[in-house]
TrEMBL record:
N-terminal signal peptide: 1-23
Keywords, in A-Z order: Signal
Source organism of this protein record: Polluticaenibacter yanchengensis
Name of the molecule in the record: Macroglobulin domain-containing protein
Taxonomy, superkingdom: Bacteria
Length: 381
């Protein structure tokens, strides 16, 4: 998805809430009637209209849930009343029913920040970057210690940097990412696919009342976390259930830092792993060997005990940029997987950072990940 910079138009209603009660909303989802899995993409075209009004920028949320309760979430921008994307149901998926819920969040990407120090700063420099290029870079005003970032959309995760425009000390701030907070859906639609690998699967419409109830649940980003907690699962078990990819679930060893300062006291995760797992000094190097099923050509690895351990951060290959911006206080757990599913004879060091109710935005961070919109084509596996 290309970078989109928007000039938002002031309308007669606000994106902070629902359109007026008498507004007539028209929401349609167009896809194929059937799908051949795994070789065919599900192409999604959404249209969001409000009678007699120009369609405001908004967000299309898509949630997929299978029979086992596994959930995938994605979101695309709605611009000029339209959103387009595609979903690839990979061959790794198990056969069964997959329900797809679409809903409109009546808000567009925005970040709201607040400076925490007593000294008043009138302006801050903001950058949102993926390391290779900047999606957003600007000096913006600060009023009453508050600032906001709007009118920008970018694909995937990026890093947010906040500092004074001059070469001064770093500011201490907290941020709220608007699209990751609870909202009220203004429209919804649902489909179901019975996936049988290597066969054509018909796409059926779901009951409207069922869809309305489910998207209300999904509109609370902590709904699943709370439900699993009530079922007796620990915070780490809930995290693993919601955020850890199946390839990384079966660990040889897992270290839990939710209620432990042991990692911070070690000074680095390398030092911690040296003492608590490898019993020897380790270093991080770069390796060009490509892993099976992963498109990245460069990987960070530790070579020890005549074996290579590939680093992953939140299910993705760890990059130098990730490593330079990673704070120990943000690390929730580290998994050691001795038998890599990607390359025989290698292992994995999988690092996971705080998310959901455990995420802490209340401290200064040189760079912190901020989720934008999903890429136009999303792979479900």
């Amino acid at each position: 998805m290309r970078l989109i910079i928007l000039s938002l138009v002031t309308l007669s209603y606000s994106l902070f809430g629902l359109p007026a009660a008498n507004a007539q909303i028209n929401f349609t989802i167009k896809t194929q009637d059937s799908l051949y899995v795994p070789n065919e993409l599900l192409n999604v075209h959404a249209e969001f209209k409000i009678k007699d009004k120009a369609a405001p920028p908004a967000t299309l949320n898509v949630t997929i849930e299978n029979d086992n309760g596994t959930i995938w979430r994605m979101r695309w921008p709605i611009i000029d009343g339209k959103a387009d994307g595609s979903i690839n149901f990979s061959e790794e998926l198990k056969n069964g029913n997959y329900k797809i819920y679409y809903d409109v969040q009546p808000r567009f990407f925005a970040i709201y920040g607040q400076l925490l120090q007593n000294k008043l700063v009138n302006q801050v420099y903001i950058a949102i970057t993926n390391g290779a290029s900047n999606y957003y870079e600007k000096n913006i005003p600060v009023k009453n210690n508050k600032f906001s970032i709007q009118k920008v959309a970018y694909p995937g995760d990026a890093y947010l940097y906040v500092r004074p425009p001059a070469k001064q000390n770093n500011v201490i701030y907290t941020v709220d990412t608007w699209l990751d907070s609870t909202y009220t859906p203004v429209a919804s639609y649902g489909q179901q696919i019975n996936i049988k690998q290597g066969a054509v699967s018909k796409i059926n419409k779901l009951d409207a009342k069922l869809v309305t109830a489910k998207v209300q649940e999904f509109a609370n980003p902590y709904h699943n976390w709370q439900a699993l907690n009530k079922a007796g699962m620990s915070d780490l078990e809930v995290y693993d259930s919601l955020f850890v990819h199946p390839n990384f679930k079966k660990a040889t060893k897992q270290f839990d830092f939710i209620k432990s300062d042991s990692l911070i006291n070690a000074g680095s995760f390398e030092t911690y792993l040296e003492k608590n797992y490898f019993n020897r000094k380790i270093t991080i190097a770069e390796e060009e060997n490509r892993l099976k099923g992963i498109r990245n050509s460069l990987f960070l690895v530790t070579r020890t005990n005549k074996k290579s351990y590939f680093y992953f951060l939140d299910n993705n290959p760890l990059t130098w940029t990730d490593l330079n911006n990673l704070l120990l206080i943000d690390i929730l757990s580290i998994k050691i997987i001795e038998n890599s599913p990607f390359k025989d004879g290698t292992g994995i060091i999988a690092i996971y950072t705080k998310a959901g109710v455990l995420k802490d935005n209340g401290i200064y961070k040189a760079g912190q990940k901020i989720k934008g919109y999903d890429h136009q084509s999303v792979n479900i596996q």
